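In the previous chapter we treated chains in isolation. Here, by contrast, the input contains two separate entities that must be folded as one system, with a combined length of 440 residues.
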Amino acid sequence: MSPGPEQRDLLLVHAAVDGELDPANAVALEERIAADPALAEERARVEALRSALRERLPPEPAPPGLRERVRRAVGLAAAPPRFSSQPSWRALAASVALAAVLSSGGTWYSLRAPPTGDAVAEAVLAGHLRGLMAPQPIDVASSDRHTVKPWFNGRVPQSPRVIDLASEGYPLVGGRIDVVGRSGVPTLVYRHREHVISLTAIAGASRDQAITTVPSIKGYNVVGWAVDGISYWAVSDLGSGDLNRFAQLFRDAPPDQ
Amino acid sequence: MTSDDDKARFATVVLPHLGDAYALARWITGDRSDAEDVVQDACLRAFRAIETFGGSNARAWTLTIVRNAAYTWMSKRRAMPMVAVGDLDDIERAQSLKGADGPGPGQASQTPETELIAKADAAQLQAAIAALPPQFRDTLVLRDLHGLDYREIAEVTGVPVGTVMSRLARARRRLIEAIGAKR
């Protein structure tokens, strides 16, 4: 027994809310929702339910002794190192690269940063360019930050901060995983008018850095900053004024976002 | 024989997901200390099987083991009513919502039902989830509380993605009906 077209649409509404539809199906469904108030209502109810669950049922944290109990059960020593005790190469690269780029007063080309630093900057730009060449610059297509953020769970060690800047003229389009070195890093994709902005978050910055514009590379503007141990790289063909404004809005968004 | 490599692997693959593991076990067993026992049991299983981990998705792999451990544990301790249910009839029932009493085209979709859902409190939501048949509850919890995507849920619950989709829609519809009906 297979579902009829209308039942199928009801299923698809759920998948759309979950960001599981490919762009072609998403657009087609959007048109049917616009024409069918019952589908629009179903979507409103599903969205209301999802946000109620998310807000009111945060995961119950594991009891404090459980981690130790498990470690003992498998014969691991006590006093676990949190994540990795020595900084990873990626963490080093993130801070070295940003410091090098931000302290450089000259042009990008004159920059003689350690090779790892160049590698990070190049990888971030390469990710943006690959995104532009692909049929779509994103792996998860959603303007809902509550869909985009959890999508990164299990794919990268740390989900990035995702901020809704649609009201400021920078709607969220989705996210993807870029590769820096051999590790996946989360990249958020925003739009401003017809321009795509890639924002890559790399964990492991050793200290905060102010927003700094890097001289453009082949017509692409790059802006970097670091907050709370994360360095952020925004890349776009957008004018540097608009890209800076984006960086400020993102950095200065209230913490509950 | 267990090597230090296995221990190190376990620490990087399983331990980061202990919080998720506990939360899922808590939903399935409905009890804190049962959930702790299940997590410990699951972690031992995961440790013994650590070399079978393929390296793709540590969280889904861990949660698969936790879920299996929880059901094994439950079947030993309690007589668990497993409700046999098809996966489509709620969707069909939802069909009937598309009746004559809906608002006209273009009207705002903020219905009283939507408002009730938005106002539902934690206890109400929790009770409604606990009342779901297990396979629906697991799917909903993994999606809406743990944030797994459909493919990961399919892996954890061992069913095709299409089944995940219909179970999720069905679970949500039941919650919507349970909460929307309390006027």
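The longest helix of chain A spans residues 37-56. Chain A has two domains: 1-80, 89-252. Compare these points with the single-chain example from earlier in the chapter.
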